[in-house]
From TrEMBL:
This is Peptidase M20 dimerisation domain-containing protein. Coiled coil: none annotated. GO terms for molecular function: hydrolase activity; metal ion binding. Its cofactor is Zn(2+); Co(2+). It comes from Thermococcus cleftensis (strain DSM 27260 / KACC 17922 / CL1). Belongs to the peptidase M20A family. Pfam families: M20_dimer, Peptidase_M20. It comes from the Archaea. Residues 241-260 are annotated as: Disordered. Keywords: Cobalt, Hydrolase, Metal-binding, Zinc.
Length: 404
């Protein structure tokens, strides 16, 4: 298991959205690893993306049939093969991001915990059954999918749109891409996600003569401050199912073209990452943002050569409207609780998160899905690692789910 994880970490699989080649090489390595394993069927689905290596974003489905064969009940275990960029390399003090190191019971490297740990756990949960000659109660479908980190447009979303025949309403779905250190948290609900870019245009001038222009930076600061305040006040209810229990609205990115202290910028951008309780409508939030933009436009309104400024525009970078939560009494939740109880002697609790996972796409189809794993939560951080014990113990739970 450790060797497999190390080999996969060595291959960067980063989205073209970040300027990289995508997942092709890592998918080929994974296919090479499992080529002699006795899966009943292995399928590759290539979502076209001209920016990526060989123009595709691959996803792999590997089937190990249960006692009743292809038509029997099925359990999906979905992991993603893409990873986020390494970030500030100076912060990586244990090893370089794609030169994995095994140390103190951990495997260090980018993508080790997110989502390599669970990917390898799912592989060897099935491999153990193969080695023992066991056919599980349920057919296990291992899905290794592209593009989770940047919205799933070329991953699960594409698969569901282009190949709806793959999915059945009575499927059980496990997404091992979230959890806690004890492995006792089962996620059954997610918040809506809105990534909103605000673009402000004014008029660039020399900073010694600001009256001859319109400072886009000042307009954007004013708008962002009041939008932040409006959203927190109007959409501030709490729901203890979630952690954190309230909607979050975080300004995360800013960008402007001014590269000198003495330039009044004519453009400014700010991005908000919004994680919204399901009771609230994304459309209402966008409408409030547009109304506020109108007020700010009037406040700073000036005309230059017949052109009215400032301009304030919105671009939705990502949107995911939260589906109905998975029923806490659904079969997949009860089976997972039982597996954790038998193998670990612990009672798992259910709840909701602010992050987005593959589970939301299944819930939209009316297929109950849960998110669960045992994680130290080092994802996206420098010195990311997977704890080997977690990988092994989670594989046992995955196998139990197929057998119970």
């Amino acid at each position: 298991m450790v060797e497999t994880l190390v080999e996969l970490i060595k291959i960067p699989a980063i989205s073209p959205d970040y300027g990289y080649e995508g997942e092709y090489d890592k998918a080929q390595k994974l296919l090479e690893i499992i080529k002699d394993w006795p899966f009943d069927k292995v399928e590759v689905y290539n979502a076209p993306d001209e920016r990526a290596k060989n123009g595709v974003r691959p996803s792999i489905l590997a089937y190990y049939y249960g006692e009743k064969g292809e038509e029997g009940p099925r359990l999906w275990i979905l992991t993603h093969i893409d990873v986020v960029p390494p970030g500030d390399l100076s912060k990586w003090t244990v090893t370089e991001p794609f030169k994995p190191v095994v140390k103190d019971g951990k495997v260090y490297g980018r993508g080790s915990e997110d989502n390599g740990q669970s990917l390898v756990a799912s592989l060897y949960a099935v491999r153990a059954m193969m080695n023992l000659g066991i056919r599980p109660k349920r057919t296990v479908i291992l899905a290794f999918v592209s593009d989770e980190e940047t919205g799933s447009k070329y991953g699960v979303e594409w698969l569901m749109r282009e190949h709806p025949e793959l999915f059945r309403k009575d499927d059980l779905v496990l997404v091992p891409d979230g959890g806690n250190e004890e492995g006792t948290f089962i996620e059954v609900a997610e918040k809506s996600i809105l990534w909103l870019r605000v673009k402000v245009r004014g008029k660039q001038v020399h900073a010694s003569m600001p009256d001859k222009g319109l400072n886009a930076h000042r307009v954007a600061l004013d708008f962002a401050y009041h939008l932040d305040r409006l959203l927190h006040e109007k959409y501030g209810e709490r729901d203890e199912l979630f952690d954190p229990p309230e909607s979050t609205f975080e300004p995360t990115m800013v960008r402007g073209p001014a590269d000198s202290p003495n330039i009044v910028p004519g453009e400014h951008e700010v991005v908000f990452d919004c994680r919204i309780l399901p009771r609230y409508s994304i459309d209402d939030i966008l409408a409030d943002a547009e109304r506020l933009a109108g007020e700010v436009r009037e406040k700073y309104r000036r005309e230059f050569d017949g052109k009215v400024l400032p301009e304030i525009e919105f671009e939705v970078l990502q949107r995911m409207d939260a589906p109905e939560p998975t029923d806490p009494n659904s079969e997949i939740v009860l089976l997972l609780k039982e597996a954790i109880r038998r193998l670990r002697g612990k009672e798992a609790k259910v709840g909701g998160i602010g992050g987005g996972t593959f589970a939301a796409y299944f819930r939209k189809l009316g297929i109950p899905a849960v998110v669960w794993a045992t994680l130290d939560e080092t994802a996206h951080q420098p010195n990311e690692y997977a704890r080997i014990k977690n990988m092994v113990e989670d594989a046992k739970v995955m196998a139990a789910l197929a057998l119970l």
